[in-house]
């Protein structure tokens, strides 16, 4: 952004689709208007943006699709507070504000030729979806893709209508688990760490990417290190309820790092020692 | 030395007050604050530093970022960048030091914050050296001095019969009419008192992160955030939308107006640091108090390139305001032991 643009002023965007992803979680597809189209011309997997429900405020959300599958930008929003409630009241054709893209991204080029283990917990799967999409759209560039996908209950699993596409891709496997099953559930039951032990992906030539609640990230990354994945190969994407996303508001510090501008993507060699302060 | 008498100074300030907003130390119900004044008669001349710092004139306690209009024609956003020119008279070296620290965040680390930048550009600072040291002052421990002119536009040093005047910047020089001062061969008076608090940058802060000390020290903390609000360098903020009554800004029927507001906040507040799911990584008071001190002496200097300087100006305002005597100089002294 140049000095003359106001980084606190959102672009306007039109909702082209709003659909239920899971209980209280909706997918919002935003078509950026005027200046926003240029700003979002080349966003990268792992980046985030602020979405405004005008009159309610704005909050940061991980971008849930790749630019290549754009040009619209997808956000998965769990209805929890006032901004997310305001967003959930909107429908197709309504106008939202979008500020970004912000933060760093997953080094998808550096991941080429390597095996990927993707671990998503609940709505933490949203910023991992562009990673999966990048691998599926450039399948020959990447090695084996192992997806471990978890939620508290089956009704909280996100992107369920895309599982067939993921499973059908070559050299790709999807493993599901929930903390609490219902009568129709025929996959794993238990924590994602238990699933990880069971699937036991090989650490050789592999990188892992984890997103979920802090407690999940903490235990998953600890287990990965026990399974011989080097800290520098374990990537995480972190979040905080930021109010600027620009390195100013002081809400997202992790030691001397700022999640908004130094992250949200880190590897565990960078933040491993700081994870206890994230809990 | 360029010299200005008290009478010349009041004449000069009254001239300024006619043309732009003049902000000066003013006693309001016995509390000394920087306030807009209409005349030099309102200025509290013989005072130590005011209770609040001058930060609010660059980064206000609450400001409108955007006007949001929702109507049949869609949504319209209007930026509201501050425009008025202002002069701050009587800023203390600790205030100017604080502005330098805030510049590092709002101006030097991209992207530039346009609201802060606009106020900074529209403000001229006339500093005043401190004749005496407040009971909680320790600016000399953090690289400051009672007569430090850095980050001022004009600096005044109290002397017999008036003030020695130094134009520090071009902006400052252009504010002083040549006719206003006389040049004589006196030297400007010296101001040399020294605080006995150690330099906090000599402490190995990371080594104290896990100390039990924080739990003990924070026991009496009320999380009231007064320390952050009086601090010249605390800059935590929140942004929210607020509804504007229709009458407020001449809105058409069927249109709703909101303003997006940025206001002071503090890492001492228990909900300040949260993740989206509601989890609070600094749920304990000890973690929050520790964060404030680490921010001043370790995190902020690293994040915003202050080098070996701290983000504390040694003004001691937080010491004076704390209702339960949590004392930053005591923390520094304890950890340096």
Compile the SSE list and pairings.
The complex is a heterodimer of chains A (279) and B (337).
Chain A: E1 11-22, E2 25-32, H1 35-39, E3 48-53, E4 57-62, E5 73-78, H2 82-88, E6 95-102, E7 115-121, H3 129-137, E8 145-151, H4 163-168, E9 172-178, E10 188-189, H5 192-199, E11 206-211, H6 214-226, E12 234-237, E13 253-254, E14 257-258, H7 259-262, E15 265-267, H8 268-271, H9 275-278
Parallel strand pairs in A: 7-8, 7-11, 8-9, 9-10, 11-12
Antiparallel strand pairs in A: 1-2, 1-6, 2-5, 3-4, 3-6, 12-15, 13-14
Chain B: E1 2-5, H1 6-19, E2 21-28, E3 31-37, E4 62-71, E5 74-79, E6 86-91, H2 93-108, H3 114-121, E7 123-128, E8 154-159, E9 162-167, H4 170-175, E10 182-183, H5 213-218, H6 226-230, E11 237-244, E12 256-264, H7 285-303, H8 317-321, H9 328-336
Parallel strand pairs in B: 2-6, 6-7, 7-8
Antiparallel strand pairs in B: 1-9, 1-10, 2-3, 4-5, 4-12, 8-9, 11-12
Give structural notes.
The complex is a heterodimer of chains A (about 280) and B (about 325). Helix content of chain A is about 20%, strand content about 30%. Chain A is of the alpha/beta class and about 280 residues long. Chain A has a seven-stranded mixed beta sheet, sandwiched between helices. A six-stranded antiparallel beta sheet of chain A has the order 4-3-6-1-2-5. A two-stranded antiparallel sheet of chain A has the order 13-14. In chain A, a hairpin with a 2-residue loop joins strand 1 and strand 2. The model of chain A has no long low-confidence stretch (mean pLDDT about 95). In chain B, strand 2 and strand 3 form a beta hairpin. The radius of gyration of chain B is 22 Å and the shape is globular. The relative contact order of chain B is 0.17. Chain B is of the alpha+beta class and about 325 residues long. The mean pLDDT of chain B is about 90. Chain B contains nine helices and twelve strands. The chains are: A alpha/beta (about 280), B alpha+beta (about 325). The interface of A and B includes residues 10, 213, 246 and 279 of A.
């Amino acid at each position: 952004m140049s000095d003359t643009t106001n980084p606190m002023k959102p672009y306007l965007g039109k909702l082209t689709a709003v659909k239920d992803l899971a209980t209280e979680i909706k997918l919002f597809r935003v078509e950026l208007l005027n200046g926003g189209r240029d700003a979002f011309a080349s966003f990268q997997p792992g980046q985030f943006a602020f979405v405004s429900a005008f009159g309610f405020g704005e909050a940061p959300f991980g971008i849930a699709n790749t630019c290549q599958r754009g040009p619209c930008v997808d956000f998965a929003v769990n209805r929890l507070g006032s901004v997310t409630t305001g967003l959930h009241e909107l429908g197709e054709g309504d106008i939202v504000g979008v500020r970004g893209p912000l933060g760093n991204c997953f080094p998808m080029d550096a991941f080429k030729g390597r095996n990927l283990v993707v671990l998503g917990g609940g709505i933490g799967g949203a910023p991992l979806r562009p990673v999966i999409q990048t691998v599926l759209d450039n399948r020959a560039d990447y090695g084996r893709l192992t997806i471990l996908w978890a939620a508290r209950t089956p009704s909280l699993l996100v992107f369920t209508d895309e599982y067939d596409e993921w499973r059908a891709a070559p050299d790709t496997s999807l493993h599901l688990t929930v903390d609490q099953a219902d009568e129709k559930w025929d996959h794993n039951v238990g924590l994602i760490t238990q699933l990880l032990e069971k699937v036991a992906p090989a650490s050789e030539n592999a990188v892992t990417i984890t997103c979920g609640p802090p407690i999940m990230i903490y235990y998953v990354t600890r287990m990965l290190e026990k399974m011989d994945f080097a800290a520098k190969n374990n990537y995480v994407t972190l979040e905080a309820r930021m109010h600027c996303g620009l390195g100013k508001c002081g809400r997202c510090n992790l030691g001397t790092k700022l999640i908004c501008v130094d992250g949200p993507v880190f590897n565990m060699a960078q933040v491993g020692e700081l994870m206890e302060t994230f809990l | 030395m360029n010299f200005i008498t008290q009478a010349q100074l009041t004449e000069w300030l009254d001239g300024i007050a006619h043309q732009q907003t003049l902000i000066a130390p003013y006693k309001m119900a016995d509390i000394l604050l920087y306030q807009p004044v209409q005349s030099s008669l309102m200025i509290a001349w013989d005072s130590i530093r005011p209770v609040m710092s001058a930060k609010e004139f660059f980064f206000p306690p609450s400001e409108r970022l955007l006007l949001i209009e929702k109507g049949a024609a869609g949504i319209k956003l209007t930026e509201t960048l501050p425009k008025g020119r202002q002069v701050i008279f009587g800023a203390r070296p600790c205030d100017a030091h604080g502005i330098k620290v805030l510049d590092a965040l709002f101006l030097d680390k991209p992207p530039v914050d346009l609201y802060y930048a606009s106020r900074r550009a529209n403000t001229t600072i006339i500093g005043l050296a401190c004749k005496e040291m407040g009971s909680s002052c320790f600016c000399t421990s953090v690289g400051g001095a009672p007569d430090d002119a850095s980050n001022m536009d004009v600096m005044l040093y109290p002397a017999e019969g008036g003030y020695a005047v130094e134009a520090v910047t071009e902006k400052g020089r252009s504010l002083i009419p040549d006719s206003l001062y006389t040049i004589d061969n006196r030297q400007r008076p010296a101001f040399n008192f020294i605080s006995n608090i150690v330099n906090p940058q000599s402490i190995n802060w990371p080594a104290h992160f896990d100390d039990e000390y924080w739990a003990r020290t924070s026991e009496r903390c009320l999380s009231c955030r007064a320390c952050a609000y009086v601090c010249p360098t605390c800059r935590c903020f929140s942004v929210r939308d607020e509804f504007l009554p229709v009458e407020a800004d001449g809105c058409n029927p069927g249109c709703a107006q909101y303003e997006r507001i940025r206001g002071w906040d503090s890492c001492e507040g228990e909900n300040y640091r949260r993740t989206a799911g509601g989890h609070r990584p600094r749920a304990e008071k000890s973690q929050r108090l520790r964060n404030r001190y680490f921010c001043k002496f370790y995190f902020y200097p690293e994040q915003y390139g202050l080098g070996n300087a701290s983000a504390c100006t040694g003004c001691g305002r937080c010491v004076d305001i704390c209702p339960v005597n949590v004392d930053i100089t005591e923390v520094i002294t304890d950890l340096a032991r």
